[in-house]
Structures are given as C-alpha cells and as structure tokens.
Backbone:
DNA sequence: TATCAAGCTGAAAACGTTTTCAATTTGATT
DNA sequence: AATCAAATTGAAAACGTTTTCAGCTTGATA
C-alpha cells in the first residue's frame, strides 16, 4: 500500500522549515545555514526519508537514467561494451535501462519510443546497422544519442569505434604475408555498412596492395553464430581458401572447430584471424589470433561522451576512433 | 529546451474534451464513446502526442520498470539469465534497469536504494550470496523481489533455481561410476551457501553413497575465472585427482585447458563435468560434459513470477525448482 | 411521459519534487 | 544608529499525468 510513506513535506513539517529548504539540503545546495542543515538532516535520518526520484524527474526534467539498446546481452562482444557503459554511467550517477533489440528494426524503433516516453536523459545505441526507420527516430528527437561499436556511414551521429577498415586491412595483409594467396573474408550480413563499407573495404585494399585479385567467391556472408561458422568448412575448402579473416569471435570459433573437426590443422593448413579479441579467443585451442579492440573502453568512452552531450558540454570531435591492434596467437603463423 | 512540447492538456484543448477523457483514450479505458475516441485519437496523431511516463509514474505509482541486479553482464551464465528476464519483461511491457554488482555487498545495498528511489515496481536479484546487509534491505521494502539462480538458505525470498544438490550429486556419481576414486570438487567461494550448503553437500552425498571417504584436500575453493582454473592443474595433480566436478563453465574451461596444456588427456587422464551448460561447453575442445540448466528459463520464470507478485496475483509456491539434466560430451567417458 | 440505470464526461485534487522570486535576516560598514 | 549587500528562507507555481466523484446524457422500460 503505502510504499512511499514519508515525503519531503513530512520532513519540512517536522523540521519546521519549508520544502524548499529540505530540497536544498537534499541536493547539497550550499545556501543553507549549517544549523538548519543539521536540523533537517537529523529529521531525514529520524524519519528515514528517501527522495522519490520519479517526482524529482518530473519536476527537474532529468531522470539520471540513460537507455542502452543492445542487440543481445548474451553476445560476449556486446556485453563487454555494456559493462563499460554501465561502469561509467554509475560513476556519473546514471542508471541504465537495457533492452535487447535483436537488430530488429521494428523492435528498435519501438524501444526508442519507450525510452523517450520514459524521459531518459540520453541513449547509447549498439548494433551493426542503423536502419532508415531508426535513423528517422534519431533525427526526430533532441535526446542525445551516441553509437558504440556501431558505424554511422552518413557520419551524423556521435560514435565511438575503431578503424575497422584499417584493422581488417592489416589482418588480411598479415595473412597474405604468411604466403596465403587465397584468404577468405567471413562476416555477417553485407547489408550492414560496417561489413560492406568498412571491413570488406579493408580486405580489398590489402589484396590490391599485395597485387592479388579480388575473388568474390572468397567472401562469405553469414550470421554471427558459432553454428554458422562450424558449417562453413566445406565451402571454404571448395574454394581452396587457406586462411580467413573473420568478423566475430564466436563465428571464428565455429569456423576453427569446423576446420579442425574436418581433420585439418590450424594454423598449418588454415590460418585464422578473428576480430573482437573477446576472452573466447583465449579459451579455444588453438588460441585465436585477433584484431584487438578495447571493448570495455568503447563502451566506457561512449558513455563518457554521452555525459558531455547531456550536460551540453563542448565536445571536440563527435566521432572518436580508439586504437586497435593485432594480437598474434596460435591460429596464425 | 522544449523536449516535451505537447502535453495531455494540449490534446484536451484541441480535441475539446477534458484531460480525463484523453487519459482514458490513451489508456484504453472502454468508457469513452467511439466518436469521442476517434476525435481524440485524431488529435493525438496530428499533434504527435506521446505520454510522459514519468508523470504517469508519479500519478499512478507504477513505473513499469523493474530493477535487475547482476554480478557481471559479461559473465555468460548471468547474461543468459538476463536475456530471459528482459524478454519476459518486454512481453509484459516492463523495462529493465540493469546494474552490475560485482557481488559486492556495499554496492548491492547502494544499488537497491537507488532502485527503490526510482520507484521500480519490482526487482530481480542475481548473485551467489545474499549478504546480511542485503537481506536487511530486502526485508525493509515492500517492493516484490525474486531471486534468479540464487539460493536463499533461509528460504524467505521467492526464487527460481535448479536443485543444485541433486545435480552435483548426480554429476559426481557419474564420475565415480567411471572408476574415479579421487574426484575433485572445484567451486567458487565456500562462503557462499550455494557452494557450501548445496553443491558441496551433493558432492559429499555421492561419495557417501559410493562408500568413498570425503577428503577435503580434494575440495578447491577459488574464484570463478578462467585464469583461476588454468592455474589449478598442479594442485589437482598433487592430490592425485583424476576427475573434477566444477561449478562454473569458464572456470572449467580454464581447468581443462590447464590440464591439457600440461600434456594430459581429457577425458583419458582426467574427466571433467561442469555446471552451467553455457554455449562455451560446445566451443572448447574437447567439448565439456555438463550439468544442464535451463538458463534462459530461469530468468524468464523469475520475471514471470515477479509480474505475478507485482500484480498481487496468488502464487502457488514461491520457490520454484526447474529441471536439470546431465549432458554427456567429450570431457567424460 | 416519467423514471432509472448505464454510459460518458469533466473539474479538480492528488502524486512528490524542484525552482523562482520575493521577503526576511544577518553582519559589516559608515 | 543607519544603511546596504549578502545570506538565508518560504510561498507557491510548476512538472504532466491519473483518479475520484459528481453530474450530465442516453435510451430503454414501465
């Protein structure tokens, strides 16, 4: 019944001051005489008063809550970002409303609307793609939004990423340098700009610089699942691929186990470089070489950027690229 | 500036009805003449009115938001539960405020207070342990709380789990039946009732029924990390263990790789059964045999239970045990 | 036609804060 | 003692809904 028994009004009455003064004390406003402050604090303690954040949100138009849209928490890549986001959010006294989108445009739009209705102060969006409907919603609102690990090919939204093109180019080059002339490119849907316009581009650049011909038979478009990777082995073999750059760690683990289970040796018969450097890379055998990304930091920096936007602080550049690297492990020579 | 331009008042004015009527239309209250409803709906459409959930929350004392406390989203076991929670929450029109606790009692208490301040309608709590301070907070509030994958040794809180004792007993028995006389028990901290009072108990029961002596040298208490598992190999060897029941999949993967990297064969020299049946079990080589738990369902059922509690619906039994199983894979004979 | 219940509707009071603005108090300065 | 600025305080109006309760319409029934 009476969940919220004691209100600011009760405190004011008991302390014999106005609500305004109680509010000041609660919010640390310095314009309160120390004696008054103590008096109020004592009553607050005695009555066990807890400010109602909903009322506060209504009055102040700030909820100290931000929305986070994530394709799937269960995905180890995104959950690492989410952890970075939450830690920084907490540091700045925000809470996170987390929702899984399954990269489904309709769901994303619906979630965005719910978040706006709940008056979140800002939003962090993760995903492989920004559909047109979603972009429309983005443009429609004044609530600050930043993308984490999600490129905006139209370069309008604030975002934090790594340079996927350069990273994939470097990875591909590495494989080529090991003598592989037929390097496969395995990624999620090429409908996603991040794959088509960034990663694939890096792959092509590496080929070109090495003087190798681009062969679209070596490009495999699939979903990001372990299973999908596992089933890819026959196809890879049929096009005589001897190495692969792969866009997702679970997918890569699938490919690797598929290859291994088929009796081939990684890296002797087939080399693999994956993309996200999640802890999975260390758990499989052989350990997987990977492009390294500061996953946690991508989330953390995105959230930090969002706090600036929410406070109308000036922001130097809206799209930040974090450094990547290449970690050699046992799946490559 | 004017984030929320159009209010229910604007709609009422334009449609020439009262706010009460608009509210009724928005909330699907049937006591509105169809003609009126249409008129209002048209204005809503025209003005692009979106109800403010914060104001709604204040007036109705319902936020359609529930708090979720999770040790670490990055942990594949908990994130699976979280996914189940979120899906069901969404199905029932709730949103999730997700916060990482790191199993830190102080942080948990603080988060609970924030959640209460934000007037969440309910809370799902995950963790290995309920500290005294946390329990005190639980008792202090009238907000419904349910535990997911988290036992309450005092059996006061609603919760959903599997029968850990029986599951571990069965797993241990399985190993014993394969001829292992020295089966190690590897888990997280034995300060946690779930390990000390449930899992370890099952382990002991299995030994007893098999006529084997309990040797506490075979009990390994560690943290739940991959790394910790990997470093355990020498210790396991020094006590002549030939098999292990392990309380967490990442930990188990660590142990297995530690053993394998030391030149031993799993399962020929060392058998392993792990506990959570996350997808990790299928990704490592050899694949790990595991106690199976319906991870997603634990979360889903917990959230479903919470919705009932929030609606004051009668609940048959407050602590639900979901079925477990034993999945044989390649890490056991 | 009078009557009554059921169906609709609106006025206004919550909900629990923050914030504005004016009033009061204080203390230093002349 | 008079004056003034600065410090402290309170009254009351937001904030945008829901909800209660009474009143008004209807249409059917006697």
Residues:
């Amino acid at each position: 019944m009476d969940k919220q028994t004691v209100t600011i009004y009760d405190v004011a009455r008991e302390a014999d001051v106005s609500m305004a003064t109680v509010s000041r004390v609660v919010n640390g406003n310095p314009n309160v005489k120390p004696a008054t402050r103590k008096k109020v604090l004592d009553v607050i303690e005695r009555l066990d008063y807890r400010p109602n954040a909903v009322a506060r949100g209504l009055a102040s138009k700030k909820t100290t809550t931000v929305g986070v849209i994530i394709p799937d928490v269960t995905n180890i890549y995104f959950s690492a970002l989410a952890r970075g986001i939450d830690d920084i959010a907490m540091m700045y006294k925000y809470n996170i409303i987390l929702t899984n989108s399954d990269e489904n445009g309709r769901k994303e739009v619906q979630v965005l609307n719910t978040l706006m209705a709940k008056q979140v102060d800002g939003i962090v969006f993760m995903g492989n793609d920004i559909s047109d409907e979603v972009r429309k919603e983005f443009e429609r609102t004044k609530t600050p939004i930043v993308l984490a690990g999600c490129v905006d090919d139209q370069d309008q939204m604030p975002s934090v990423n790594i340079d996927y093109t350069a990273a994939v180019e470097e990875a591909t080059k590495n494989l080529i340098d090991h003598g592989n002339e037929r390097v496969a490119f395995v990624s999620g849907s090429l409908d996603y700009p991040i794959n088509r316009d960034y990663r694939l581009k890096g792959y092509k650049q590496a080929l070109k610089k090495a003087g190798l011909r681009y062969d679209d038979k070596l490009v495999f478009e699939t979903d990001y699942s372990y299973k999908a990777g596992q089933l890819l082995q026959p196809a890879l073999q049929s096009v005589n691929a001897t190495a692969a750059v792969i866009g997702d760690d679970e997918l890569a683990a699938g490919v690797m186990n598929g290859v291994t289970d088929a009796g081939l040796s990684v890296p002797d018969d087939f080399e693999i470089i994956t993309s996200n450097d999640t802890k999975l890379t260390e758990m499989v055998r052989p350990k997987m070489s990977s492009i390294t990304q500061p996953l946690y930091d991508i989330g953390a920096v995105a959230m930090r950027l969002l706090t600036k936007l929410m406070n109308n602080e000036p922001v130097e550049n809206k799209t930040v690229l974090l450094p990547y690297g290449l970690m050699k492990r046992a799946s490559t020579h």
About this structure: Chain A touches chain B through 52 residues (CB under 8 Å). The mean pLDDT of chain A is 94. Chain A has three domains: 3-51, 62-162+295-324, 164-292.
